[in-house]
């Protein structure tokens, strides 16, 4: 690991506040980052205090005045070079993600690949960002709209995707002409330090204004400050519904813009017409990948009664084959949870499920002994449950999967939609009528609805996000860029008269 840290410019003690190429006095206490893989301290970061936050915001405001005047394709060129740098650092960065966050090495590399993909997407976008033209009702007039940069984009990200979610926001925001200030999760601060170091290389080589890429590694008070800060027109926050409600309320109270990507409670409907081999892999990866700590993790399976028993047995057999262990070992399927607090929540959810009448087919539990010294490794588990159990209605960020039975597709869709969250959903079926009904306006109410693939592992090309308590925001692909810009309608009169709209006469 020392080689990897050195390759990414991470020292024993690191700064927690940066304006781009320069680290500035962070002012807070020292925060050690422990790996959930082996419980060891990786390195320390000095947390940003409010003065550091102020300094980073001031620099960002200054930088915006210059950056917004760079032609968008020139900003895209910087993003292209960031993508190249990420290709160069894919191995060490993917390994650090895996070691500091605990996801499998495959998924760590996959996360860096998502960053590279969004860079490529944003480069193309930098030559587009197009508005519409309209026909004016007045003679000798032209009307069109254009999209201008917004200003400072505040990014609050979670531990589970410690680098990709930042890049989805930042790469689009930069192409759009915005400057960014990132408040990463305190649980994965070194991933943020590594990204900042990678960016600094590209920025220094291209004289990008200092302040375009701000970083403040701080505690909840820094996130709150950002949410209330009128100098930050857009706050993009990824994390729990509880956090999102508080950020959304604070940003809303000042009529700012927020982009919220919050909890999911994602289900897969397994039809009697499903390809069960595909369904098994999709369900197990969805439920245990990233140890159940994706917002797109599969938490509920809604299974047709005719195949319920056979599918349940196949699933239990598949769970028996799971190898839980060091995520850096390519043979492991499931790594640790992020910390002991997460383990505690997992145990409490199991108890609640049992108390409500849940029947565990695959028992959970915390692993002990050699290789499990961090105390963060848990067994993925499966329980038969009822849709209305309060624990089933709740997102527990851990590998607990609930099974439910259905008779009709309408009933299955009602169960799938009958939770407060609305992020991702799937149906496994080879029946065209069922698939199309699930995708219709009377079908899934989620932001993501898939057929014959699981709920997790979305590509960056689509808009990512969900409805209801998931927060309504959309990040990443499609036209998600629009939230990072302000729309301006322009009407130009090139005639010799001043006709008024709606035919109003006003003569002097
Ligand atoms: C998240 O869990 O916060 O679709 C993001 C997926 C990933 C992103 C998940 N591409 O599972």
UniProtKB/TrEMBL annotation:
<keyword id="KW-0560">Oxidoreductase</keyword>
<protein>
    <recommendedName>
        <fullName>aldehyde dehydrogenase (NAD(+))</fullName>
        <ecNumber>1.2.1.3</ecNumber>
    </recommendedName>
</protein>
<feature type="active site">
    <location>
        <position position="261"/>
    </location>
</feature>
<dbReference type="InterPro" id="IPR015590">
    <property type="entry name" value="Aldehyde_DH_dom"/>
</dbReference>
<feature type="domain" description="Aldehyde dehydrogenase">
    <location>
        <begin position="23"/>
        <end position="489"/>
    </location>
</feature>
<dbReference type="InterPro" id="IPR044638">
    <property type="entry name" value="ALDH7A1-like"/>
</dbReference>
<comment type="similarity">
    <text>Belongs to the aldehyde dehydrogenase family.</text>
</comment>
<dbReference type="InterPro" id="IPR016163">
    <property type="entry name" value="Ald_DH_C"/>
</dbReference>
<dbReference type="Pfam" id="PF00171">
    <property type="entry name" value="Aldedh"/>
</dbReference>
<comment type="subunit">
    <text>Homotetramer.</text>
</comment>
<dbReference type="InterPro" id="IPR016161">
    <property type="entry name" value="Ald_DH/histidinol_DH"/>
</dbReference>
<dbReference type="InterPro" id="IPR029510">
    <property type="entry name" value="Ald_DH_CS_GLU"/>
</dbReference>
<dbReference type="InterPro" id="IPR016162">
    <property type="entry name" value="Ald_DH_N"/>
</dbReference>
<keyword id="KW-0520">NAD</keyword>
């Amino acid at each position: 690991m020392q080689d990897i840290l050195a390759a990414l410019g991470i020292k024993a003690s690191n700064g927690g506040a940066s304006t781009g190429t320069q680290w500035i006095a962070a002012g807070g206490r020292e925060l050690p980052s422990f790996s959930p893989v082996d419980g060891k301290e990786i390195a320390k970061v000095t947390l940003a205090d409010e003065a550091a936050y102020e300094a980073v915001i001031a620099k960002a405001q200054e930088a915006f005045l210059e950056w917004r005047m760079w032609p968008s394709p020139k900003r895209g060129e910087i993003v292209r070079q960031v993508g190249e740098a990420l290709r160069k650092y894919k191995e060490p960065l993917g390994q650090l993600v895996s070691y500091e966050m605990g996801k499998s090495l495959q998924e760590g590399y996959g996360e860096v690949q998502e960053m590279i993909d969004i860079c490529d997407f944003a480069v193309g976008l930098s030559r587009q960002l197009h508005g519409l033209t309209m026909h004016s009702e007045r003679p000798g007039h032209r009307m069109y709209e254009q999209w201008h940069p917004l200003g400072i984009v505040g990014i609050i990200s979670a531990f589970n995707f410690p680098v990709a979610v930042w890049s989805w926001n930042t790469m689009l925001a930069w192409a759009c002409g915005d400057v960014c200030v990132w408040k990463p999760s305190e649980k994965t601060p070194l991933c943020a330090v590594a990204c900042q170091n990678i960016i600094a290389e590209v920025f220094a080589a291209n004289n990008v204004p200092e302040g375009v890429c701000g970083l403040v590694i701080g505690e909840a008070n820094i996130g709150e400050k950002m949410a209330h800060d009128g100098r930050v027109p857009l706050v993009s926050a990824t994390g729990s519904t509880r956090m999102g409600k508080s950020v959304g309320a604070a940003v809303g109270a000042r009529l700012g813009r927020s982009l919220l990507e919050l909890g999911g409670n994602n289900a897969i409907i397994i039809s009697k017409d499903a390809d069960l081999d595909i369904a098994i892999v999709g369900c197990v990866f969805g439920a245990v990948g990233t140890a159940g700590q994706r917002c797109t993790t599969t938490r509920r399976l809604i299974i047709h009664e005719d195949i319920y028993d056979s599918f349940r047995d196949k699933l239990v057999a598949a769970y028996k084959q799971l190898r839980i262990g060091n995520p850096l070992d390519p043979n492991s399927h499931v790594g640790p949870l992020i910390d002991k607090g997460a383990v505690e929540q997992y145990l409490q959810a199991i108890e609640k499920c049992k108390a409500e009448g849940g029947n565990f087919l695959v028992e959970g539990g915390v692993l002990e002994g050699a290789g499990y010294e961090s105390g963060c490794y848990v067994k993925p588990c499966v329980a038969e449950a009822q849709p209305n159990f309060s624990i089933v209605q709740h997102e527990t960020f851990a590998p607990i999967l609930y099974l439910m039975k259905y008779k009709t597709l309408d009933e299955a869709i009602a169960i799938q939609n009958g939770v407060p969250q609305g992020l991702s959903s799937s149906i496994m079926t080879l029946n065209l009528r069922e698939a199309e009904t699930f995708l219709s306006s009377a079908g899934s109410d989620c932001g993501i609805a898939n057929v014959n693939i699981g709920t997790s592992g979305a590509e960056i090309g689509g808009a990512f996000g969900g409805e209801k308590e998931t927060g309504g925001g959309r990040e990443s692909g499609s036209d998600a860029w629009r939230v990072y810009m302000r729309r301006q309608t322009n009407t130009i009169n090139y005639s010799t008269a001043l006709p008024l709209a709606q035919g109003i006469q006003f003569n002097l």
